Amino acid sequence: MQAILSGTGLVKSYGRLRAVDGVDIAVQPGEALGIVGPNGAGKTTLFGALAGAFPLSAGEIRLDGAVITPLPAPRRCALGIARTYQVPRPFLGMTVFENVQVAARAGGDLKTEASIDHAAQILGATGLRAMANRPAGALGLLDRKRLELARALATRPRVILLDEIGGGLTEGELDVLVALILTLKAQGLTIVWIEHILHALLRVIDRLVCMAEGRILAQGSPRAVMDDAQVRAAYLGSDPE
Ligand SMILES: Nc1ncnc2c1ncn2[C@@H]1O[C@H](COP(=O)(O)OP(=O)(O)OP(=O)(O)O)[C@@H](O)[C@H]1O
Asked: Which Gene Ontology molecular function entries are recorded, alphabetically (predicted)?
């Protein structure tokens, strides 16, 4: 099957540091791919590379087999690549609804009326309907995470890149978030999820990649990767779970 999103020979250098150092990655349509690795492994930088946040130092990125390497982030978003950020970035002074509608207009390329309908639908799907008229800055953590997800979904993605969206949540809140992500997966959305909270990640993903020092250490079935000796060593001998 042709990958929906792939990167070949990806390198991103900051001065002498190669934050991403020769990564090959391919995500299949409808797949949920997890990415783990110690702090500083290059996971977020890989997302930046895939989403077009900066020019690559080397490598090529394809969407549906077509090269998108030169395209800036807004163009990639319009083509169906959405991303959430480790630290959510809503417009704090706008309401929840306005935040989602802006994303639908700007990222989803919808005219005003269609963006209103789409935003309302996304708020329902993400459990935010009751919060629609609250300022984004007034939300609790779970709702901030939902809003981050909703803003990405509003752009009508085919692939969503989730960057540590589970961080800081209670177990009960994680359950809510995992259920939501599983619903998106069941609807056919392709998911790439960086997450330190492994038990949450393992409930969703089909395949796991472990990165360390800018490279892929291991990839394959989640269990095989977690059992890999190099992966265990990268976690300094601790039990990754
Ligand atoms: N804009 C930047 N300028 C300089 N160095 C950077 C920049 N962004 C990331 N780095 C460095 O690149 C390396 C990889 O960082 P990255 O944030 O991608 O790691 P990560 O695996 O996402 O880590 P974490 O799990 O802590 O989020 C780190 O050493 C980081 O300090």
From this structure: ATP binding
How would you classify the pairing of strands 207-212 and 190-194? unpaired
Which atom number of ligand 1 is nearest to the Cα of residue 211?
A: 21
Tell me the domains of the chain and their CATH numbers. 1-80+157-241 (3.40.50.300), 91-156 (no CATH)
Could you tell me if 162 and 153 are in contact, meaning their C-beta atoms sit under 8 angstroms apart? no
Q: Say how many Å lie between the CA of residue 43 and the centre of ligand 1.
A: 8
100-132 residue pLDDT tens: 999 998 887 788 889 999 999 999 999 999 999
ipTM entry: 0.96
CA distances from 125 to 40, 149, 159, 183 (A): 33, 10, 17, 9
- For ligand 1, pick from 16, 17, 216 the residue to mutate: most ligand atoms within 8 Å of CB: 17
**Could you tell me the distance, in angstroms and rounded to a whole number, from the CA of residue 119 to the centre of ligand 1?**
33
